[in-house]
Amino acid sequence: MSTQPSYEILEQRLKELEGKIARLQEAETALRQSGERLSQIVLRNPIPTIVVNADHIVTHCNKAFEKLNGISGDEIIGTDNQWMLFYPSKRPILADLVISEASEEEVAAYYDGKSRKSSTVEGGYEAEAFFPSLGENGKWLLFTAVPLRDNLGNITGAVETLQDVTDRRRAEEDVRQRKQRLTQIVRGSSIPTFVIDTNHRITHCNRAFENMIGISSDELIGTRKQWMPFYASQRLVLADFVVDNVPEDKIRSHYEGGKFRKSDIAEGAYEAEHFFPELGETGEWLFATVAPLFDEDGRIAGAIETVQNITEGKRAEEALRKSEKRHRTLLDFVPYPLVVYDIKGRVSYLNPAFTKVFGWTLQELDGKRIEFVPPDKEQETRERIRDLLEHKTVVRYETTRTTKDGRLIDVSLSAALLSEQEEDDLPGQVVILSDITQEKRLARQNEAVLRISMALPEYPDIEGLLDYINSEVRQLCDSEGGNVILRDEENDELFFTGVSYDDRDTERRVKAIRFSMDQLATGRTIRTGEPQIINDTSLEPELHIERDKRLGYRTRKLIVVPLKSSDRIIGALCAVNKKHGDYEKADVELLSIIAGTVALSVENARFSDEIKQAYREVSSMN
């Protein structure tokens, strides 16, 4: 017969149960508060975050996660469908693998080896992967997943964060492609070339350089032996000086006995000719060019040096000097502008000569289109591009292009297709341009002078002749107007004898108006005998506003050259409002040539009028 527990024992057990219940309630409260804190941490975290419990069920995800994946949290919380956000078929995400305590090899298998253990949290992992279904062009994501543990150290779930690292990956790819392009440029060059970094170690050298110095690139790349082909003992070569940003005068001191100068095609670049007695049997002359390489922040990241053996040329020069049979000629460099486009017409490379002629740098245009085709040449250019795609080359096509500062220049253009991809891929283009503005201008001048000379007998009326000459001036100077202004010496006034404007009403108004000598810039030219280029009339408003008001025409730019007879200045020849760019010295030279013909024609006309007047006077006396 069992004894019943005493009242005291029951009371003691009751107290123990109450204590256990209280502790369980405290633990439940702590757990709930911990869950709430976790929920707040996840929801307020700006980094996309998802939480999975030990049963691989999604318990939390934040707004950043929803935005990245384009899905509402309500659709996945409480499910094990976290895989659907990233993969076409069911498979564990990184958090699932952490919960399952997968081995490092198992994790690596799911992420193509692009995973690693966390260096800060035991049991955690990091991984990178590309997801083509995210965004317009896919995204690269960096995952981190760490386990959640209870007080006993048991895994109760995992937290996974995601970061969009697409920009970083694309930047790394861009750097890789730039390095690849540099390698292709160096290796593809027929000129011996090598490249060093800021640590003075050789990073590239081409076959031409190997052939010239007789040393394999395997022996040079990664070393500081760039001096070995040229000197008996170690010393700095030209590229080393540029990398160290050594002042010009100190570099010059190392090239005494040769020629050293700054290059005029690239900032910070140099050229040098030097005799190397250690090379060959009797020494050799080398011509070196070096230019700095810059990183994206504009800091020197290395230098590229080209070396050419010019011994035969130097010896030929010496022979020519001694024999004195021919003129001495040394061609150092011909700066042809060159630009490389991709298939979409965006710039991938342009050389310093292009910058020198057109004004734009590679930094300004890389990955962009060059807006330098004049509107009236756009259709013609499209046709030439079609010809290029069909025939693979375009040779010496003459056209016009605009520069960065708005000047219109004549160019000769040759182009060819090139491709770094497979044969079936669409290629890019390489275009070489030559500035032939001066040639074309000289040809137009000669043609104009010839036309004017041939036209003289056709215009017995001086006013008609001058109108014709001014129409030529207007076209040759690319201007809105051209006119001849003569001086009325008796009244000390200026009047327009011959005019040509785009607008006919302006022509009629101009011919009917006279000005005093002080009211026009022409008066200053007649008094001083000096030509004037005025590319901004707003700098002298008192001289131009009243004139334009009377003429009913706004003058923005003006060029004036004197008309000189044998003993005095009789007027001036003018061009008004250049349509593209500013007036230049070449325009003065052109107008000065035409002004001689105009002055002679005016004087002949006056002489003819004087003879006719004298004849009338003699006839009346008879």
Structure in words:
The chain has 622 residues and is an alpha+beta fold. The strands form four sheets. A six-stranded antiparallel beta sheet has the order 2-1-6-5-4-3, sandwiched between helices. A hairpin with a 5-residue loop joins strand 11 and strand 12 (300-309). The protein is elongated, with a radius of gyration of 41 Å. Residues 324-334, 420-425 and 610-619 have low confidence and may be disordered.
Question: Mean pLDDT, rounded to whole units?
Answer: 79
Largest sheet: 6 strands, antiparallel
Distance between the termini: 183 Å
What is the number of E strands?
Answer: 23
pLDDT below 50 for ≥5 consecutive residues: which ranges? 324-334, 420-425, 610-619
Provide the β-strand percentage band. Answer: 25-35%
The secondary-structure class comes to alpha+beta
Describe the global form: elongated
Order of strands, main sheet, comes to: 2-1-6-5-4-3
Please bin the fraction of helical residues.
Answer: 25-40%
User: How many H/I helices?
Assistant: 18
Give the radius of gyration: 41 Å
Keywords:
alpha+beta; six-stranded antiparallel beta sheet; 26% strand; 23 strands; 622 residues
Helices, strands, pairings?
Layout: H1 7-44, E1 49-53, E2 58-61, H2 63-69, H3 94-99, H4 104-110, E3 115-117, E4 125-131, E5 139-149, E6 155-164, H5 166-188, E7 193-197, E8 202-205, H6 207-213, H7 238-243, H8 248-252, E9 259-262, E10 270-276, E11 284-294, E12 300-309, H9 311-323, E13 338-341, E14 347-350, H10 352-358, H11 362-365, H12 378-391, E15 393-402, E16 408-418, E17 428-435, H13 437-455, H14 462-476, E18 479-488, E19 493-501, H15 504-511, E20 514-516, H16 521-528, E21 532-534, H17 541-551, E22 558-564, E23 569-578, H18 585-621
Antiparallel strand pairs: 1-2, 1-6, 3-4, 4-5, 5-6, 7-8, 7-12, 9-10, 10-11, 11-12, 13-14, 13-17, 15-16, 16-17, 18-19, 18-23, 19-20, 21-22, 22-23
Helix pairs in contact: 13-14, 13-18, 14-18
